[in-house]
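User: Please predict the structure of the protein below. I'd like the answer in structure-token form so I can feed it into my own downstream comparison script.

Assistant: Understood. Taking the following sequence of 443 residues as input:
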Amino acid sequence: MTTLLNTSTSLCPECLKVINAEVIVSKGRVYIEKSCPLHGQFSAPHPWSDPRHYKVLVKLSEGVNDFIADGLVINLNSICNQHCPFCFARANESQIEEPSIEEIVKKVSGFPGTIIYLSGGEPTLRADIAEIIKAIKLFKRYRVFLFTNGKRLTDKAFVCKLKESGVDLVILQFDTFDNAQSLLLRGEQLTEIKLDSLANLKMAKIPVYLFVMLLKGVNTDQIERLIDFASRNSGYIKLLNFNPVWRMGRFRQHDEFDASSILIEIENILGCADEEFFNNTIFSYYLFKILKRLLKKKGNQHPKCEMRCYMVLHKNKFVLLGRICDIERVGIYLEKINSCLDSRLYYRGLRIALSLFCFLLKEFLSKKALRAVVFKNVRILLKTKFNLLDMEMISIIVGTFHNNLNIDLNFVKTCNLFSDYPGKTRYYNSSCIRQLVMTNDIK
């Protein structure tokens, strides 16, 4: 029994031409099916293969046709000090001309978003990495996030240099605490290197975002340990992002393990239902969208291709935000306010905002746990001049990447993570699209 869920467009995996596609449910799983006049028919599991997950995320992207420029990935090089069996960028396989600081500044200067991601290869191999960060920070409006495998961060002097340059966040690849798993995934035993890097980042007070690649049957047993580790080090580890292997570039054959499967694993570990993750995702999406409007397009925009939940510290234990506050009700209010802003019904939106304030006040007065969390974090914010990264909160993200078989352009067209193309002053509105084109060029 096959049911049509949606129509979309996709890409032919052979010629990368835009073609029509259907999103269907078959045997309880979501698939994307498409046909190219030249290369025939293709079918693949959707990046979000659970119908419940797909429906929540597609609802967020309905009616969205504009590209929201939020983050820009600048690729500084194609070389790396590792040769991972799994590498979407196919590092060390080809040589790109490394952009000069002047070229990087030119790429950044016209970008309307707020975050610049420095990537590679391994960007820390650039001898001028600190100067690059300083040059970007001169624009004032940008925050700089650095992707890295962490090898160079074992050098305390180098980490201090990064801190002085003004880097705002380090996104560290951290797949496992098990060296045998690391050898399989990254070709090296890296556990001690990762932990040394984290110790130096903590010493330098640089916030950290752990990026985890999961391979079915290999390191899925690390999910619970990583959540526990992030919770115990929440003073500087702020985000934990779980992703399936991106079937792009260089990778070994492996069993499918998609974003929906990861989400279900995490829900089992946290002891929460689907609805708790859904409510956190909806709350986050509309909150960031409204803040971005009020701040005149400054600030982050929640991507529409990921699920997330927030955990806050209460009585020395991290608990889901929805356990101390009715996050579902808050999300409903925020969705209504955003709808009013879309329709320019500002007076009505103000009335709903007032209703939300009254509801939150009632929640605050009636729930002791909420009061304790709010008071503690307000004290922290006053001390740190309202730096939200210092709050006692962890964000757990379940994300995914589209490949040439399963790409759903209904999702990708709303992507807020743009990417540059080496050697050219232009952007792709999706890192997935950029990587598809780059991989095709390498072929």
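That's the full token string. DSSP finds 14 helices and 15 strands in the chain.
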